[in-house]
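hiii, so i know i said id send this last week but things got crazy w the move. better late than never?? heres the sequnce for the chain we talked about at the cafe, plus the structure i predicted for it. fair warning i was half asleep when i ran it
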Amino acid sequence: MRLKVFPLFLTLIGSILFIPVPNANATNITFSQTFNQGAIASSSVIIAWESFRSSLTGSYGSFTWSSTNGSSITVSDPTKIQLLANALRTGTVTNSVIGSNTWYVGTGCGSTSGYSVAVEFSNVASCSCSSTYSLRPLINNSNWGGSGGTTCGAATQTITLTFYNSAPDTTAPTFTSSLFFSAAENISISTAAATIKVSESATVTISSGADAALFTISNSDTVTALIKFKASPNYESPSDSGGNNVYDLVLTATDSASNSGTQTITITVTDVVDTSSFNSFSLSGTPAYRTVATITANVSVAARVTFRAKNVIISGCKNKLATGSGSSFSATCSWKPSTRGAVVLTATAAPTGAGISSSTATPLSVMVGNRSGGR
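okay and structure toks below
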């Protein structure tokens, strides 16, 4: 921000004090200086105070007053705040009731050589030592004011007074989405298990919760966040802290003014009837009467496979364990046809895992011929 310089005629002895003034388009105007116990305000503090006052040329809706001693207050009322800002700038005595406080702009408390008027700002009448908030840098003694207690001989502190173009944002974001979500087991880690909505632009995070470590969260836009599992959940083997397929999270939404709101949500994993299927069902070679042929079944899950010819279980081929991994498990059957001619081969798979449905292979029609060679 480029500073302007213009003369303010503030003295009784004819000299001119040049005070740097911020651009009038500045949104907020702040005075922040350190006062020392038992000492008068330094010349740099006085110049900063006069510069602050002369800079109050905009429109203001609130001010905040804080001190390094821990006391602070925020005051909002566009009409009355503007009245006080104008009075501070022009050095006009006035007062205005805002909430439980009466705020005063005074000019009758002390003086400093070279300044025609000693403007003070407080929440009681001029020169009172009992005021909670008071600034009187031009008093020319150690009773320069203070915050949160006596304002005469107050302890060393830095006082910050800011006039805002509008009332500061003190409203926390709220959550507009549900408290309860559900997701089917085996949901992909790239699919949102919960879509979170908030009332204003905010960053949403998983701040705590018994199952927080099991999820990721990302903002899809300024008011929407997506929660995803880090690993696909299994209903039959829940990984939540309670072991009941109900996952507990605490979310925090924080806006650009650092206001934050929280919400506890649950994501319930629901059961899905898993299914098995045959990847393939085949016979090696051409079957011949009383000659061993190998039937192979490949299924999508670990299962026990039963092989049939003409709807009769083939000897030695009942509940054959299919072995493998992923979605490929194989079982074989050694079949010695006992008849010639057309035969329909079938197989059924009974998964070894709980909650998975059985499946039947597509029937395989073959023609059993004469065997070659003698007995």
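btw The radius of gyration is 41 Å. thought thatd interest u
miss u guys!!
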